Amino acid sequence: MAARVLMLIVAAAWLTSTNLAIAGGEPEFFHVGGKVLCQDCNQGYNEWIHGSKPIKGSKVSITCMDKRHRVIHYGSDETDEQGEYDITISKYKNGKEVKPELCTVRLVSSPDPVCNIFTNFGSGKSGVKLQRPSSVFRDLVKYTLGPFYCTLPMCEKPDTSENQEGEGSN
Prior knowledge:
Elements: H1 2-23, E1 29-39, H2 45-50, E2 53-54, E3 59-65, E4 71-78, E5 84-90, E6 92-93, E7 96-97, E8 103-109, E9 117-118, E10 128-129, E11 135-137, E12 140-144, E13 148-151
Parallel strand pairs: 1-12, 1-13
Antiparallel strand pairs: 1-2, 1-5, 3-4, 3-8, 6-7, 8-10, 9-13, 11-12
């Protein structure tokens, strides 16, 4: 009886590995996507969130590290007319596995001459670590991030920290 159970387990494992090999196994790439929007602080809260406008041509980057904190991949994409970007990353670079959880996505630039101050609303300024894919289907693994925002220069908060250079030091 135990031998039959063991044979069934071995056969199931073999079939699973054969099916993965036939289907191509794990996906070779993963995708990261999201939007870049302009916030106007002159609008009310509802308009501020729901009335945000896409910024075409904004640059978003992804930096992936290895376990020793060395960069193994850097990539970027520019947003389209809807303010959307989609970065495709190979799961292997120079023989090393790129682990999504060791990747950080951040806003790099905004070509909008009026709306070009990065905010950390959505963590675009400091960067977002990839956590869980939003989509896993056959050979597609995608991480969809919340929008990154830029704002107008007049909306930028001034630095009011007490540790400003030249002030308060003896």
